[in-house]
Amino acid sequence: MRLRSHAHLLESPLKHISTHPLLSLQWNRHPYSTTSESPRKEIAVLGGGITGLACAYYISKERPRDNITIYEAGPRLGGWMHSTHVEVPGGRVLFEHGPRTLRPGLNGLVTAHLIQELGLIPDVIFTPKTAASARNRYVYYPDHLVRMPPYESKIELARRLLEEPAFRGLIWGVFGEIFRPKRPADLTDESLGSFISRRVDPRVVNNLVSALMHGIYAGDVWQLSAKSLAPMHWYLEGKFGSTTRGLFDVNTTNKASGDNPGAPILRRDADMIKEMVREQLEPDFRKALRECSVYSFRNGIQELVEHLAESMRSNARISIKLNTTVMGLKLESKDQGGIKVREDSPSTKDVVVSTLFSKTLGNLCISDDGKTQLPALCKTHAVTVMVVNLYFTNPKLLPVEGFGYLIPQSVPFAQNPERALGVIFDSDAMKGQDTVDGTKITVMLGGHWWDGWGEYPSEEEGINMARSILARHLRITESPAVARANLHRDCIPQYTVGHDERMRIAHAQLKSAFGGRLQVVGSSYTGVGVNDCIRAARDIAKGLGENVWLLGEARTGLDHFLDNHSWVLPGGK
Ligand SMILES: C=Cc1c2[nH]c(c1C)Cc1[nH]c(c(CCC(=O)O)c1C)Cc1[nH]c(c(C)c1CCC(=O)O)Cc1[nH]c(c(C)c1C=C)C2
């Protein structure tokens, strides 16, 4: 890694401002306004994961004249997006140690454009919607695999809904939703578990929704926030008294005004879509995205990180500091000056964009009395996940072809004493990354089950736990040719009940303590997926490009939590 000298960063940016010829004209109005002649800004991005890299990429596009420094505490970029090639008998296979696939969709639009801009399209591999792994998704309940809808026929649907214990409560729960009473007016948030229990049935929560929450948040459905995780359903209940009635009303109104049917979306999402459609995707790529369930890259998801990093290294205005821990952040003065970044060689920046876990950031911002200036950010909890990758030479080990299965919270302890969250059939889910046949499986352990644990299983223990899960659930008793376990501490922030309100408070605290000099983005705030993080990075860069880092109208990255979610119909009304 080439590291450039950062001696120039130690100078205060005020030094340049004070010698600037336009100073007398501009200073009183917009101390940080940017014209083509204004001094270069110094921008720090904390964290070299996908959000940090995407932030630096988009900020450099918005503000090509400014200097950007990325601070990464570890020795490599990419955070927990990490793919490795492993030698196995007869060839090599790819192990994904974190997220493994990308999904087309709303925030996925931004990722797709990024991939195109980075010239990465030739490396993309797609899993079509018609593939077995896209159609066959399972839940393990209570002691066997249950395939999730859609099914091939209505008869099969009826049979499974009636016979499988996993679906108990679903039919009458869904039909009855329309008749359930509206939530009390003073209820400002509740757990997703409680929301769906109220509106549908608690069995649906325990047997199905909890499994889904394991697959996305590795989290506890009884703690995650309904308002944050199911904002549209929350909104529809509030406005129409029932989600079903709300969707029906919205669609009738839409049809009457000649618009396509569909669900309401957030105004900021509608604006983003309008913006993105102006920037065209290559037609073949767009078509492949439309027809795929998920996609990745020939050499794994890490390719995205590597290409982003490459584009940073070729940009003389961007420096990357690896193995550099930021130990503190301090505003130099309320109305002028910058924000001091304390590390081995401290420097002053005009703006710091933090992509760190919010609690880590809160602990960096300590006032003179020794307390954090951002207490709301310190309240976020994150779960720890162990990812166990296994490769077996036998290509015919799996009892079914599919994506894999998720394990709901209601599975009896005897069936899941290891507290696994789910199992992914990698060799089915993403083809074209290995040079040899075999069966590749990932077992995910821990998440909320490990909350409060002071110690976690060792790698060896994790591998043994994964093997006993596979033996019990799938009757796989063969020894893997290769097994790896990686523990990801605090890797998935949990949007627990009250997240929305905490983010509003955090916005006020950031604004008051840093006046817009410190902005936040990443998985602690607006979505834990790769697509969410890339989209949020683009949003924050657009904010900086719009020249709003003026002290009077300081942005924080959490500004949209204030607008209390304005919704629009698919037609844009
Ligand atoms: C590696 C652990 C992760 C778990 N959840 C996430 C990660 C990175 C984040 C996540 N996973 C999914 C979504 C939904 C939206 C999306 O981007 O697809 C999010 C935000 C869905 C998902 N869950 C699993 C997979 C393979 C996918 C597709 C996306 C991806 O490749 O990450 C499986 C899975 N993830 C977790 C568990 C416990 C699990 C179990 C089988 C936790």
UniProtKB/TrEMBL annotation:
Entry keywords, A to Z: FAD, Flavoprotein, Heme biosynthesis, Oxidoreductase, Porphyrin biosynthesis
Catalytic activity: protoporphyrinogen IX + 3 O2 = protoporphyrin IX + 3 H2O2
Named cofactor requirement(s): FAD
Gene Ontology CC: one annotated term: mitochondrial inner membrane
EC number: 1.3.3.4
Protein name: Protoporphyrinogen oxidase
Pfam family, one: Amino_oxidase
The species this protein was found in: Lepidopterella palustris CBS 459.81
Taxonomic lineage: Eukaryota, Fungi, Dikarya, Ascomycota, Pezizomycotina
